């Protein structure tokens, strides 16, 4: 894989023809070299102030080199103390890249990007004597990550372990977390480049520290990025980032505002989940954008059945219905996609470096946490069907069988719209929930996304509220078997999880997006009942 050529091929003749003038214009305007030179004017006057502090990702293949020795030194120290289990507490840009890196290299990393009490309890049940937790937050105030830090610090102390020696911090300079790390004497505080946004941070300390501590070869990753950097800054029609941006821009102009991502043998594990945040959060705003739809493979529903509203993109060799294929080793793909998405933002006329709608769901969740009565809620379900409580928002009356409820709700989706399944559950123990995506896609004919909550709030959540307003949103919540206290906080993890689901639902509904929440009073039974109901929908 190290010697694999990095390339973008446009397999569809019509798309290639439509992209050609955009590609030529990008070349003649010198866009690639200007991105490489960190020209903040490329996205217009309104975006300039933000862009001016968000472009350091273009040189990370060089500027991140000093991290290699620091990471290896800390890993050697920890191993000498018998500490070889790495837990990562981080959300969005702080967790997605490390998960892809370690998954691709086959090294173990326990990722906590959840507020589900069961999933966090499982992580706590690991061997604490061998555990170090990396607490990773750009702002230093991420509520999920702070909760994980508090829970693990108490668990270490209760086990007679010096918590400060087992906590490593990755954050921006001057953040509250950086200050806390110094005050508490945490094992090490890595300060990341503040001029890189979270979703562009794969090659910063946010991506490299947890992956490197887990045993991934981060030097090779930087080498892969360095190997393609000059190509990506070249003003040439052979530049793969320009080719990808032009293809996505041309497709969007023709009504294909969705990108269906399937791995076709890239050798990379889960790159679509990383690209999902980059694409959705960068472009999904001002009522426009590109919605990434990550599917199970090139034979999956949504890829094989992509209509005029979607562009099937292969990550790996061209296969099946792919209109575009992107190849290259992981480090190169990180940089390639970052260049391409930033440039696509220029073509769409948006600022690819802000996320104006993300804060709305956070504010709503905070308001619910501050009002326990609102959180427990007096609202009665519109129906109780077996182990499933139905809370019908816009788009459903909640009457009839579970299949009837789903059918009525899904019928509210416009032609060319999409279905977003949002599972505020345990992505390990409730993993079967992800099977709903291909089943719904097959039976509705609509592009269907799947996200674990609150993880997706830090990625596709921006698009849901700011992108094309043609989605319908199926929320899944579930009663936890056991809750977990968050030390020195007036809420439990279960309450936080519930607040995040309800808060996001409120914001979506207020924006006119149809929302249906199905609460599983028995998670296993409820998921089985829901799958049966979906399978009874007409295909």
Q: Whole-number radius of gyration? A: 22 Å
What assembly state would you assign to the polypeptide chains in this entry? single chain
Would you report the number of β strands? 16
Largest sheet: 6 strands, mixed
Number of helices: 21
Distance between the termini: 40 Å
Query: So what's the overall shape?
Result: globular
Q: What value does the average pLDDT take?
A: 96
Largest sheet, order of strands side by side? 11-12-16-15-13-14
Low-pLDDT stretches: none
Secondary-structure content class: alpha/beta
Fraction in helix:
40-55%
Query: How large is the share of residues in beta strands?
Result: 15-25%
Concise overview:
With 539 residues, the chain is an alpha/beta fold. The chain is 44% helix and 15% strand. The strands form three sheets. It has a six-stranded mixed sheet with strand order 11-12-16-15-13-14, with helices on both faces. Strands 1-10-9-7-8 form a five-stranded mixed sheet.
